[in-house]
Amino acid sequence: MIEEAQLLQQLKSTNHKEQAFKDLLNLYKERLYWHVRNIVKSHDDADDVLQNTFIKVYKNIDKFKGDSKIFSWMYRIATNEAITFLNQKAKRLQISNDEVQELAINNLTSDVYFEGDVIQLKLQKAIATLPQKQQLVFNMKYFQDLKYSEMSDILETSEGALKASYHLAVKKIEAHLSNN
């Protein structure tokens, strides 16, 4: 397994950039895919967002200062790309962001890549009722089991605020599930 510092050095080197980028893709593409997929819900949309994410990473790797881990930086880009995608979709369809979420959830049942059962679908519907920040925090903690310190780097929010957001999200989801 390649060290992050070594990978970053290779990414910034003209001789090794292509191979280092392939290594970076292999290292993080699945984790980033599921992160994005939890936000946009659709497999096809997640693929589009992920492609845009990796294009941005490739184009901007020279600007990466190393203040955080590459992983955190890439997650931040992926998160922003997913949110931008949803906002653009809402604008294009001339509907609210909440309606975009509802549409995505309703389309999950016809998505051939969705492997969840009735309970998973109910959970996704409950998550969709949360404010966007709470959705992100819940998905990152519940589905990806990220540490609050990692989430803090990615979302640029204090760990305390993230813990509070997660706690509120869990309570709202529990309430939604018990009422529906």
UniProtKB/TrEMBL annotation:
Gene3D superfamilies: 1.10.1740.10, Winged helix-like DNA-binding domain superfamily/Winged helix DNA-binding domain. Keywords: Sigma factor, Transcription, Transcription regulation. It holds the Pfam family Sigma70_r2. It comes from the Bacteria. Belongs to the sigma-70 factor family. ECF subfamily. Signal peptide: none annotated. Residues 26-91 form the RNA polymerase sigma-70 region domain. The keyword Plastid does not apply. The keyword Lipid biosynthesis does not apply. This is RNA polymerase sigma70 factor. InterPro entries: RNA_pol_sigma-70-like (IPR039425), RNA_pol_sigma-70_dom (IPR014284), RNA_pol_sigma70_r2 (IPR007627), RNA_pol_sigma70_r4_t2 (IPR013249), RNA_pol_sigma_r2 (IPR013325), RNA_pol_sigma_r3/r4-like (IPR013324), WH-like_DNA-bd_sf (IPR036388). Residues 121-173 form the RNA polymerase sigma factor 70 region 4 type domain. GO terms for biological process: DNA-templated transcription initiation. GO terms for molecular function: DNA binding; sigma factor activity. The lineage of its organism: Bacteria, Pseudomonadati, Bacteroidota, Flavobacteriia, Flavobacteriales.
